[in-house]
Model the fold of this input.
Amino acid sequence: MTIRNIVILTGAGVSAESGLATFRGPDGLWEGHRVEDVCTPDAYARDPALVHAFYDARRAKVGSVRPNAAHEALARLDAEWPGELLLVTQNVDDLHERAGSKRLHHMHGELTRGWCLACDRRIDWSGPMGETATCPACSSVGQVRPDIVWFGEMPYDMDRIDDALRACDLFVSIGTSGAVYPAAGFVQTARYCGARTLEINLEPSLGSHLFDEGRIGPASVEVPKWVAEMLA
Ligand code: BJW
Done:
């Protein structure tokens, strides 16, 4: 089968070796809270200080880490692959773009963006946000929340992702547990439309039986190997 169009999905595992905690691993709790208890609109309405503290801490941590060999290899594939390619990340860190990826979509939002609930604008954000942030666009105070897709909210640009999945010849899932939808269902869409499917993970994910091929190992080793094969 000739491969021209590729869709790649990444999850927290691709950034783990840069030093960012995954959500559902042994280090997956944040100060005793499960991600499902912090990353919801209800949790934000109930305790905005807690949710801001979670994201302020993660924004600070991301600023202190660097892309690893997996991010770099995916950026190389983006630069050198002659066909269509879309890298869809569930991650809210900016390590893919810092490595150089261009054809990139953050389906769960970005730590470096805020969303003003008063004027509905998305704005670049660095440093802490907290409960009393002033919107640089409309000057409202205390109305800016992290521009992150929480449980029960619609991930960004699903139509674009769906079109890419339906047109791809190869779907590759890297470092994601397959616990969160709609991302966990991408493999089924791609398969249904005739794509070959590959999973790269430290251990088989919940949906590993849906993939044609699984490569078990750290992303920093397995992704550069796979990219080298694709570009050979
Ligand atoms: C390595 C590695 C190394 C480690 N090398 N690998 C019941 C059934 C089905 C669905 C639902 C349901 N009830 C509710 C839903 C829907 C809900 C959902 O899926 N809930 C589940 C808990 C069941 N989903 C939603 O609400 C979503 N919205 C939605 O569905 O809208 C309606 C809709 C309808 C139709 C079409 C489209 C939409 C929104 C989901 C928002 C998720 N948000 C979060 C938090 C915000 C972002 C943030 O703060 O960072 O996103 S949750 C959290 O999980 C985060 C992640 O992006 C996401 C996925 O986690 P990920 O990346 O897979 O991390 P882990 O930790 O789970 O796994 C890490 C993996 O890496 C592991 O496999 C390791 O082995 C591996 N690994 N080191 C390679 N070195």
The beta strands are 6-10, 85-89, 104-106, 109-116, 122-124, 144-148, 170-174, 196-201, 213-216. The first helix runs from residue 13 to 16. The chain has a mean pLDDT of 96. The two ends are 16 Å apart (CA to CA).
